[in-house]
Amino acid sequence: MQKLMPYAEKIAALLKSRNETIAVSESSSGGLISAALLAVPGASAYFVGGGVLYTRTAFLKLMNTTAERLQGQQPGTESNALFRARVVRELLGTTWGVSEAGTAGPTGSRYGYAPGHSCIGVSGPVEHAQIIETGSGDRMENMYAFAQAALELLAANIAERR
Q1: How far apart are CA 125 and CA 118, in angstroms?
Q2: pLDDT in tens, 97-136
Q3: Could you give the CA distance from residue 104 to residue 139 in angstroms, rounded to a whole number?
Q4: CA angle, 25 as apex, 20 and 29 as ends, to 5°?
Q5: What is the DSSP letter of 135?
Q6: Could you tell me if 131 and 119 are in contact, meaning their C-beta atoms sit under 8 angstroms apart?
Q7: Cα 162 vs. chain centroid, distance in angstroms?
Q8: What is the pLDDT of residue 11?
Q9: What is the Cα–Cα distance from 91 to 69, expressed in whole angstroms?
Q10: Which CATH superfamily is domain 5-160 in?
Q11: For residue range 9-23, what is the model confidence (pLDDT) as tens digits?
Q12: What is the pTM for the complete model shown?
């Protein structure tokens, strides 16, 4: 977790200084994104909520969305990552939404992605998404790599907005 804290601290400082808020939708990172953001003292000033939406069922029910709204959303893509970030941001009424969904390993996904594949999305005043490929089947390493990539992208996007 210590490796994630410099990113979380930077994000927290920017969000607090601007009175902005964040919501998180994560999957294969297993809550590490939220945990890092919540580990910064004063997190209640910017962290509204989110969840580990590990399955399609969890995403549909907890994000109060429908299967029809998911049509055309290919898992493992940048457009899907942005969709997920937008949904959590809209649902929780925050300035920013960040999403992560991927395949931590040790095996690949049913969609044909190798372990170590994840998509990160940030939605807010600026939006970006990126695909992460670690090339590793190490589940725990991938979880941390996905969380770090999400925090890095979020920090860059918040800083870009200046």
Answers
A1: 23
A2: 999 999 999 999 988 899 999 999 999 999 999 999 999 9
A3: 5
A4: 115
A5: -
A6: yes
A7: 21
A8: 98
A9: 14
A10: CinA-like (3.90.950.20)
A11: 999 999 999 999 999
A12: 0.95
Rg (CA), the chain: 14
Q: Please give the structure tokens belonging to residue 5.
A: 């804290």
What are the residue ranges spanned by the domains of the chain? 5-160
The Cα–Cα gap between 40 and 92 comes to 20
- Grouping H, G, I as helix, E, B as strand and the rest as coil, residue 81 is helix
